[in-house]
Amino acid sequence: MSNPVAFLGRTAQYVLLSIAAFVSVFPFFWMVLGATNTSPDIIRGRIAPGTALFDNIGKFLTQIDLPRVLFNSLFIAGVGSALTLIVASMAGYGFEMFRSRVRERVFSLLLLMLSIPFAALMIPLFIMMANLKLINTYQAIILPSIASIFIIFYFRQATKAFPHELRDAARIDGLKEWQIFFYVYMPVMRSTYAAATIIVFMANWNNYLWPLIVLQTNDMFTMTLAIAALNAGYTPDFGVIMVGAIIATLPTLVIFFLLQRRFVEGMLGAVK
Amino acid sequence: MAHSHLARSEKINGWGFVMPALVLIGIFMIYPIVWSLWMSFQTGRGMQLSFGGLANITRLTQDPIFIRALTNTLIFLAIQVPVMLVLALLFANALNDSKLWGRGFFRTAIFLPCVTSLVAYSVIFKSMFAGDGIVNQTLLALNLIDVPIAWLADPFWAKVVIVTAITWRWTGYNMIFYLAAMQNIDRSIYEAARIDGVPAWARFWYLTVPMLKPVILFTSIISTIGTLQLFDEPNLITLGGPSDSTLTLSLYIYNLSFKFMPSFGYAATVSYVIVILVALLSILQFFAVRERRT
C-alpha cells in the first residue's frame, strides 16, 4: 500500500461495509437477547442476556397454541407452494415451448398485470370468499396465491435453457406431451424448482395482510398472525414476542444458510 | 394431413399447459380488478351498495385523511426508494472487489435482513425504537443527541423509523441484483480506465452506473410498486400513528374496509389511486432511463 489514496479508499471501503454489516445483523442479536429478557428490560434497552428465557417461552406457550399455529403456517405454505410450483411451471413451460402469436400476447398482458397492487384486489377477493363461505379456511389463503405471475415468468425464463433436443428425443420415443413435462422437464429443471420453492415458500410463510383479512379465529392463525396478535394492545410483552419472532424467522434462516446459492439465484431469476 | 395433425396437437398442448394458470388468474386477478373498478363507482355501507357515479371521487378530494395517506405514501416513496437504492449501489460497488478480504461474510451479513419475516422484524424494530430503547441509549452514549428522541410518538420521527425499517429490510435484496449485474461487466474496461488514470469515483459514476441502468430501472420499479403498497410496517410499528402521520394508502384501504363499518365502494376508489400511481410511475421511470441512455 504505497499509494496513500488507495489506502484511504480501502479503509473507507472496510468502514462502510463493517457499519452496514453491523446494522444488518444487530437486530438478529437483539431478537435473541430479547427472548432472554423481560419486556421492561427490552424497552429500557438492556443489552445483556437476561434470565427470563424460560419464563418467556412458558408465557408464549400459554398464549399461543404453538403446534396448531405451526401446522397452519406449514400447511398453507407447503400446499400453497406445491400447487404454485406445478401450475406456474406448467404455464412457463407452455408459453416457452409452444409458441403462438395469441399466447405471446397473453403473456405480455400477464407481464403488465405483474404491477397490479394487491390492495386493489383484496376487497373483491374478500367478498368473493365470503360468498363462497370460505372465510376462515385454508382454501381462502391458498387459492388466490397459486397462479403467481412472477413464478410463471421465472419458469419461462429458465425454460429458455431447457434443451429442445430432449423434448424431440422424448417425442420420438413416443412419450406424450404431459409425460415429457413430468418425466423429462421436471427432473432436468430440478435446480430451478429448488430456487422457486424457496421464493414461494418464503412469500407464503411471511404473508400477513391477506391472512389478516381472511383468518379470523385463533385456531386458524398462522405464525405471522400470532405474532401480530401478541404485538396488539397498549403494553405488548416484547420478551414473549421475541420468542415468536425467533420461531417465525428460524425456518427461512435455516433454508437460507443451507441453500445460500440457490436462494440468491432464485431472487435473481427475474433479471437473467 | 400429418401437418395439420401436428398443428392441432401443438394448439391443444400449448393451451393445455397454460390453461390452469390462466383460469386461476382470471378468477383471482382479472375478475377482482374489474369488479373493484365497478365498485369504485358505488356508494353505501357494507354489502348494501348502489351506483353513485363520481360521488367517491368527489369524496376523495374532500377527505383530509385520504390526502394525508396519499402525502405520506408519496413521502415514503420519494425518500425511502432513492436512499435504499443508493446505499445498495454503494455496498455492491464496495463488495465488487476480488481483493476484498471477508467478501462472503459482508455479502451474507448485508443480505441477511431479507430472510426475516416482515411481521417479526417490524416488532423487533418497534422494541428497538422505544422511548428509552436501545437506539436512544446508543445515540445518547455516543453523544449524538442530548435528550431521547420520541421515535414512535412524534409524527416526523415515526416516519423516519418506518423509512429506516424498510431500508434495513430491503437494501441487501437490491444489492444482490446490482452485484450480479456488476459481475457481468467486462473487467478489461476498468483496467483500461485505471491505466488512463480515471479515479475510482469516476469509474463508478461514468462506467458502472450507466452499464447498470437496466437493473437500476428494474429495482426502482419493483421498489416503487412495493412502497406504494406499504402496509405491514406501519400497521405493526406505528399503527399509522401518531395522528395519522404514518398512515399509508394500503393501511387506509384496510381501515376503510375491515376496521370500521365497511365502506367497500370508497375503499375501492382509494385502491384505484394506487393502481394509477403504480402505472404512471412505472411508465415515467421507464422513459426516464430510456431518455438518458440516448
UniProtKB/TrEMBL annotation, chain A:
Localization, UniProt: Cell membrane
GO biological process per UniProt: transmembrane transport
Membrane topology: Multi-pass membrane protein
Keywords, ordered alphabetically: Cell membrane, Membrane, Transmembrane, Transmembrane helix, Transport
Protein name, UniProt field: Lactose/L-arabinose transport system permease protein
Species this chain originates from: Devosia crocina
InterPro entries reported in the protein's UniProt record: MetI-like, MetI-like_sf
One Gene Ontology term, aspect cellular component: plasma membrane
Domain ABC transmembrane type-1: 70-259
Transmembrane segments: 12-33, 69-95, 107-129, 135-155, 180-202, 208-231, 238-259
A Pfam family per the record: BPD_transp_1
Lineage: Bacteria, Pseudomonadati, Pseudomonadota, Alphaproteobacteria, Hyphomicrobiales
Similarity section: Belongs to the binding-protein-dependent transport system permease family.
UniProtKB/TrEMBL annotation, chain B:
Keywords from the UniProt entry: Cell membrane, Membrane, Transmembrane, Transmembrane helix, Transport
Principal subcellular localization: membrane
Domain ABC transmembrane type-1 per the UniProt entry, residue ranges: 70-285
Recorded topology in the membrane: Multi-pass membrane protein
Natural source organism: Devosia crocina
Protein name from the UniProt record: Lactose/L-arabinose transport system permease protein
Family: Belongs to the binding-protein-dependent transport system permease family.
CDD domains referenced in this protein's UniProt entry, alphabetically: TM_PBP2 (cd06261)
Transmembrane regions listed in the UniProt entry: 12-38, 74-92, 104-124, 156-180, 211-231, 264-289
